[in-house]
């Protein structure tokens, strides 16, 4: 079953870092997932997030306000 991953952020350096970490983990571990980058502030507000970047997996906010390690992302996806 494919995971739906959303990265919430307006395009700041931390948001770009999180996007790269998530993409690397998905690619390196051959995880079936779609990655959406959400930059629209109104969309981000729907998740009740005040600090970006945020990582949303299957509509659950898992990380906010920091860039996770690859290991951390892998654990969240497994």
UniProtKB/TrEMBL annotation:
Keywords recorded for this protein, A-Z: Disulfide bond, Redox-active center
The Thioredoxin-like fold domain, residue ranges: 5-77
Keyword Disulfide bond: yes
Cysteine pairs bridged by disulfides in the record: 12-15
Protein's UniProt keywords contain Chaperone: no
Entry-linked InterPro entries: Thioredoxin-like_fold, Thioredoxin-like_sf, THIRX-like_proc
Catalytic residues (positions): 12 (nucleophile), 15 (nucleophile)
Listed transmembrane segments: none
Entries under Pfam families matching the protein: Thioredoxin_3
Coiled-coil ranges (or none): none
Domain of life where this protein originates: Bacteria
PANTHER family given in the database record: THIOREDOXIN
Protein name: Small redox-active disulfide protein 2
The species this protein was found in: Winogradskyella eximia
């Amino acid at each position: 079953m494919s995971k739906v991953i959303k990265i919430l952020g307006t395009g700041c350096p931390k948001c770009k870092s999180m996007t790269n970490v998530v993409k690397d983990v998905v690619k390196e571990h051959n995880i079936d997932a779609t990655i959406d980058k959400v930059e629209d502030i109104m969309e981000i507000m729907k998740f009740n997030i005040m600090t970006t970047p945020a990582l949303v997996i299957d509509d659950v906010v898992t990380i906010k306000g920091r860039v996770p390690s690859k290991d951390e992302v892998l654990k969240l996806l497994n």
